[in-house]
Amino acid sequence: MSFAWLGERIKRRDAGSVFLIAPLAAFELVFFVVPFLILVRMSLNANADPGFYQPAWTLEAYRAVLDSGLYRDLVVFSFELGVIATVIAVSLALFYAYAAYRADGLRKSLLLFSIILPLLTTLVVKTYAWRPLLSPNGVLNDVLVGVGLIGSPIQFAPGIVGTVIGQVYIVFPYAVLSIYSVLSTMDWDTVEAARDLGASRPRSFLEVVVPEALPGIAVATVVSFAWSVGAYAAPSQLGSGAQTTFAMEIESLMLTQFDYPTGAAFSLLMLAAMLVVSLGVMRLLTGSVGGVEGV
Amino acid sequence: MSEVELPRERVEDALFRAGYWLVFAIVMLPIVVVFVTSFQQGEYLTFPPQEFSLRWYGQFFASAEWLSAVRDSIVIGVGASVLSTALGVTGSLAVQRSDSTLARILPPLILLPLLLPPVVIGLTLLIYFNRVGFGSTYLNIIVAHTLWATPLVFFVMQSVFARFDWDLRDAGMDLGARPSRVFYHVVLPNVRSGVVISAVVAFIVSLQEFIMALFLKSYEVQTVPVLAWTSLQSSLTPLVSVVSAFLVAISILGVLVSAVLMNIEWLAEQL
């Protein structure tokens, strides 16, 4: 077998790869990278009368967003919701992913099914279905009043409780699967060993399972956080006026006020802020940045 | 170790089990609500309903507006599924077999749309399509959904190709078969389940996606979730539960198909 032939073969294989990779690379370039550059360009245009913008190179739109007290409140609330929903979703997800990892047979299939199904269900269904459960005359209130825990019905939705429940429900499946996919490669013997050495179950969980799951927890945190800061469906469907997020304002800027430069600038500022927070979380949880795989 | 610990372990076990079944019940609850309320009689969505009827199913099938949204959703779902499966499978195959710079930067790049809030992608594409659009709402939404579905296809196929024995392919090549024939006769039969699952998942993701579809809808074309959303703005009608029941049923079917082809554990690790 001659080396020239081998070289030829490798070259041919590479040429084939280029041919195969080209469509995907072109698609991402034309429909993701270029639109993003246009978004950046749009944020530098000047805002004109409703529905129009003036081609320009100005930071006016950024200044308008940063100076606005209303927007500051929206941003603060969006980040609060992001943190609260992420903490609840990731803690519950760690527990549930561990349960799915430990289960076997039909039970494992049921637990995984209960995660994949909501994952593949539209946001609309995931949010509105909570309304008859959380409203003042809903099931939760009936139960709580019935057992005497509360005297009179509480309005969970519309309100902050409903918003948080809805948002946690939206990101929960993604968080579980991020953690589960890491846990599923873990060797149970390590945990057994810790227990044989006298570690209690909670301790073996905290000191063996959690560190193993950290990369998954990091991915779960970043995904839950990005989606919860950008929450749209849960606060609009289950919140009251006090639960307005940045994403709802973007929707209104783009689809009602047609103020493209401000919408673009606002989005880019939020993305920058979210990126900083996400990198911080990744560094905190994994000790290094990067290495995110398989969401 | 001692006899005191045995009951304690049993209590821990019971609590652990009670804990995850409680979460299971809460996670499934909204899905139950959707199915049950789709059969209710009253005007206003109530759970549990007082009386049952097929009234809202009748209304759904009689509504031209809903049926046209169903058609739009199917057109877009099929389009997004075909496009993202084609791009994802070829791209994944290429990345698997190459270590060029492009093959290294592409995976994180295609993952990015999944990590951005959908509202941001919606607005980015809205601005873009307003300037250089196809002038077709169908194509606009298909492209948006393909941005989302492609990474799923891509990573499912990465794992499928990783399990494929590439020596088989090389043997086919050594025997003189053209690459296209080798792909068709040797590679494809081994990865067919993966491709089918990818296409099914891509279709479902497109069918259920709502925020990008909301930003890119037009007067003539809007998907089922978008129409459901707009109807909910005016009233909490059980008609939405009928539509939702269909949407959830399609997802259940998709999960079952995938579970039969591979298994549910594998699916959970890929998504």
How would you explain this protein's 3D organization?
The complex is a heterodimer of chains A (295) and B (271). Chain A is an all-alpha fold and 295 residues long. Chain A has a single domain (68-286), classed as Orthogonal Bundle (MetI-like fold). Chain A is built from 13 helices and two strands; from the N terminus they run αββαααααααααααα. Chain A has helices spanning 3-43, 60-67, 69-102, 105-119, 123-128, 131-134, 139-146, 160-183, 188-196, 201-229, 233-238, 246-255, 260-286, and strands spanning 46-47, 53-54. Chain A has a two-stranded antiparallel sheet. In chain A, β1 (46-47) and β2 form a beta hairpin. The longest helix of chain A has 41 residues, at 3-43. The relative contact order of chain A is 0.13. Chain B is mainly alpha-helical. Chain B has a single domain, classed as MetI-like fold (Orthogonal Bundle). The longest helix of chain B is centred in the first third of the chain and has 34 residues, at 64-97. Chain B is globular and about 70 Å long. The relative contact order of chain B is 0.13. Chains A and B meet through α1, α3, α4, α5 and α6 of A and α1, α3, α4, α5 and α6 of B.
Tally of discrete structural domains of chain B: 1
How many domains of chain A?
A: 1
- CA gyration radius of chain B, whole angstroms: 23 Å
- The mean pLDDT of chain B is 88
CATH C-level name of chain A = Mainly Alpha
Which parts of chain B are unreliable, with pLDDT below 50 for 5 consecutive residues or more?
Answer: none
Structure in a nutshell:
The complex is a heterodimer of chains A (295) and B (271). Helices cover 75% and strands 1% of the residues of chain A.
Helices, strands, pairings?
The complex is a heterodimer of chains A (295) and B (271).
Chain A: H1 3-43, E1 46-47, E2 53-54, H2 60-67, H3 69-102, H4 105-119, H5 123-128, H6 131-134, H7 139-146, H8 160-183, H9 188-196, H10 201-229, H11 233-238, H12 246-255, H13 260-286
Antiparallel strand pairs in A: 1-2
Helix pairs in contact in A: 1-13, 2-13, 3-4, 3-8, 3-10, 4-8, 8-10, 9-10, 10-13, 12-13
Chain B: H1 5-37, H2 55-62, H3 64-97, H4 101-115, H5 118-132, H6 137-163, H7 166-174, H8 179-208, H9 211-216, H10 224-234, H11 239-261, H12 264-270
